Amino acid sequence: MSSYPTKPTFAGESEERIKRFLATASHDLQSPLRHIAMYAELLLDDLEETLDGEQLQSLRMIMEKAQTAQRLTKALMSLAGGTPQVTPEEVDLQALAENIWGELTDETAVGEATLESNGLPSIRTDPALFGLVLRHLLTNALMYRSEAAPHVAIAAERAGTDWFIRISDNGAGIDPAYRERIFEPFWKLPKLGTVQGAGLGLATAREFLTALGGDISLEHSDESGSRFIIRLPIA
Question: What's the whole-model pTM score?
Fold first, then answer.
């Protein structure tokens, strides 16, 4: 295994901006998420006997997703405060990748997109934080696509005391001029015809992985696609 690149620290001003953004956004989301979870739980208690199986499953899904989002926003607030609260547990990486992929392809209506991820291991990490990292990477793979139908492959291997997880896509690739900037907070890769976000996806992904004891880098990119590599400690 080749040596892994160290993570560059953010400049002071950019770091403070990203922390303020995370703290404000997470704080503002806490109240509506709490009410969504509460009302879903009340509806389950009141209507459980009258709903069919599919309706019950949908209502339980609403409650579970709201509770997951609550845990995530609390983790983001703690991260912004400089004392990240990480709750590691055994995570089925295969199931996590498939769930996130299913949600994203539904949201983006990219029906022809395919995911190759058979046989991924279980890893011990914080499912909310790592799930958001994976979501950022898969979202980018769908957004910055080439003319071909999007295809993403996820593979994991154990080396020493670390997991190395590679996420490869067949997208348009990243121009060499931008490869040193993609992890900068509030910087966005130019792409015509797309709705631009805040430019925090890869920057926050790197910060989350740092809190988890890991890191991320762009391992390869050309006209055939890009490959990111995530390092996570096994223990």
Answer: 0.70
* Six-digit token string for 36: 């969504």
C-alpha angle 119/103/221, rounded to 5°?
65
Distances from the Cα of 124 to the Cα of 64, 141, 154, 212, angstroms: 21, 25, 17, 10
Tokens of 35: 């009410």
**Predicted confidence band of residue 152 (pLDDT cuts 50, 70, 90):** very high
What pLDDT shows up at residue 110?
Answer: 73
175 contacts: CB under 8 Å, gap ≥ 6: none
Amino acid at the residue 125: T
| 154: nearest Cα among 230, 75, 59 | 230
- Distance, C-alpha 72 to centroid of its chain: 11
- Of 219, 213, 217, 218, the C-alpha closest to 232 is 213
